[in-house]
Amino acid sequence: MSLLVIMTISLSANSQNTPESIIEKFFDNYKNKGAELAVEEMYATNPWTIRVKDAINNIKTQLARFDNDLVGEYYGYEFLTKKQIGDSFILYSYFLKFDRQFLRLTFQFYKPNNEWRLNSFKFDDSFDEELEESAKIYYLELSQE
User: Fold this and answer.
1) What is the pTM of this model?
2) What is the model's pLDDT at position 110?
């Protein structure tokens, strides 16, 4: 009986430690508990982040600034892309959708051994500039007839 309980606990701990589950928890915390707690709990997946506490506090403060007064009501999030290199590094990109504008969130995860951990997190609002740049004529394949 105790072996079954240990296996169940072990399996549920591993199933919760995926990039997708960490991101899902981030968005749930963001909506229900606020930006600062969401960022803090996400960075807690990496024991090395204790060395960059000031940078994490800066990210928490900056993300918390995007509130109702600045960007309007929060409407949720939207998946943009996923890029993976090998079995140990993966990047996810999402939109945070607000009434006035969006923010792009970029999550990078690293799996050094058996567990995924947050490697990097950043956000910006310049996605529209990148999209506009990609539509310029020198990026288009022009037919030669």
Assistant:
1) 0.77
2) 95
